[in-house]
Amino acid sequence: MPDRAEAMAALADPLRRDLYRLATDRAIGRDDVAATLGIPRSTAAFHLDRLAEAGLLSVSYERRSGRTGPGAGRPAKLYRATAAEVAASIPERHYELVGELLAAAAEAVDAQGLPFREALGAEAFATGVAIGSGCGDLDGSLTACGFAPRARSADSGQEATTGDIVLENCPFHALAARHTELICSANLDLVRGLVAGTGDERTAVLAPADGRCCVEIRAEAR
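Now predict its structure.
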């Protein structure tokens, strides 16, 4: 099983998500990907290898011509998904992620005697930092976690890169609806970790609203 933070960082790129989905059905080669997605073979190779390094794809070699011996040509490098359940949770819901946060918090309670909410907040923040550091930019890390970020400033004609961000999707929707205070608090700590991990200077705050995530990211605290 690939490391969760590293896997989500690798899948932050939309093209890599498309590549990963292709590889969940069958073994694919660089030429297959280039032809299917209309991208250069070198680009396909780069992203396939990145997914393999993250543990999301396994690599094998096969002569597709069916011939063997001298003159049969070099074997093709093929890639296949090793953990199809990761793709199934993108981009809408990430219940496996919140499950891991809750389990790690419970372990910290047993091992260190911490209050559960404190342990959950610390685990969520640390996970956010790891994912954000792996992605390198805030929008990419938010997308990898399923938040669907949108620049609020686009609505008012301001520069989207300098304004507030609203999160159109809650990746933990069902749990947040039933256990709102607990899950939304952990959600806030996760997003704060993403912000810290990417080095972004904006601030994540709780701002519940119907139809989207309870967290917003603001250029200025208010």
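Residues 87 and 117 are 29 Å apart (CA to CA).
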